[in-house]
Amino acid sequence: MRAHQRPGRSNAGSVAGLWRALGLTVASALVWGIAHIWAGRRAAGFLLMGLFAALSGALAVLGLGFQEELKRIAVQRTWLNVITIGIVLLAVFWGGVVLRSYLILRPAGLPAAIRVTAGTLVTVLVVMLCTPLVYAANATYVLRDTLGSIFHGDGNGPKINTADPWKDKPRLNVLLLGGDGGADRSGVRPDSMTVASIDTHNGNTVLFSLPRSLQKFPMPARLRTRWPAGYTGYPGDQGLLNELYQAAETHPELEPGQPKGQRGPHLTEEVIGNLLGLKIDYYILVNLDGFKDIVDAMGGVVVNVTKRLPIGGDDDPHHLRPATGYLEPGRQRLNGEKALWFGRSRHADDDFHRMDRQKCLLKDIAEQANPQKILTRFEKLAEAAKGTVDTNIPAELLPALVTLSGSIKKGSSLHSIPFNPYKLTGFHVYEPEIQVMRQVTRAGIADSEKPPTPKPTTTGGKKKTASGTGGSSAGGSTSLKDICG
């Protein structure tokens, strides 16, 4: 007579099989194919394992050996589309492998409650596995959208030779503008105007800072009939350099053919390029009111405050805008609001010291914007940048600019030449001589192109020769390291 199997033993075997199935499902989430091989489906298991090994190996090789190429790919919208789709497909496939691994190992005859609980656990595992991939796909899409919003060009520049964009361009000249546009202000007046002249072969850079209060400066030939004796502005204006932007936006005849929003930066480009004797290639305008959002999205920025700076006012008790606080001297981390005042405050000294602080602030932000910080705060940074940055740099130039910026960070020289009448002989804020400004510019660029000169240092009481920039130069340039401390 046939013996009857005990129900308890059958259920115990099913539960044991379930724990084995769940364990192998987790293992298959980490290495594809393990569950299939255990279930005897060796062909499918080894195929999945081979695909997993090939994918892991390819990602490791790309991450370790092609970092520069990946940086260039990361700023190309077509590639970002491909990457987004690829990540989504990978998430779907990986989730499918995990679900299938569980289904082929799940024992039969499980009670309904246990079956539902096990299915829920596997679903949670799939969600946990796919969530980082979905986040990566979304971040990639956000990056693509941000690049398209900011780097759209303006249709006026020359066609980009993407294979070798610097072939006939030994230097790239970019105008950096810090605008004061905000909800409580009408129009835009750049508080900060700096031309970055970059050697496209080695990344050596000279920053030429112009005072916002420059007056009665010579205009380009096409505008001299309007201002033959130098720029004096329109009725009600002071005739300052930083009024040009809004003047062009208000008076379209100054930049015929340019749409609203582009007249201001293009006229400022043209006039400053004329003063320095440079062809300005592109501009970047950062709205200072939104600049603090970028700094906050970075988690703050560490700067060296060299003197006590008032926030929101000045130290003079007779003025109607008393300070609401102070930035005390010392190296410290500033949030967006305080970093903005570090760059904008001028009541503790003057415009020329403020120009130096602004360049130091830009330098500190560039040095501290490391990939880890950008990735962890990426969406906040992207949202802040879209509402803060405007430029006519086309997206096609971004891969080459990424490579160039890498050379700048790797130790190429970074020099500063502020047009400061207290430091530059022959330069005047009122009625500046254009030949003096052009000579200073030429000398500064020539000095930056010289190889580093050895300067003596002392070690253990003995003089030793070390490579250095030599500090100030005939062109009035000074290393930013010396300025910023």
TrEMBL record:
Residues 443-485 are annotated as: Disordered. Pfam families: LytR_cpsA_psr. The chain crosses the membrane at residues 21-39, 45-66, 78-100, 112-135. Keywords: Membrane, Transmembrane, Transmembrane helix. InterPro entries: LytR/CpsA/Psr_CW_biosynth, LytR_CpsA_psr. Residues 189-369 form the Cell envelope-related transcriptional attenuator domain. NCBIfam families: lytR_cpsA_psr. Belongs to the LytR/CpsA/Psr (LCP) family. This is LCP family protein. The lineage of its organism: Bacteria, Bacillati, Actinomycetota, Actinomycetes, Streptosporangiales.
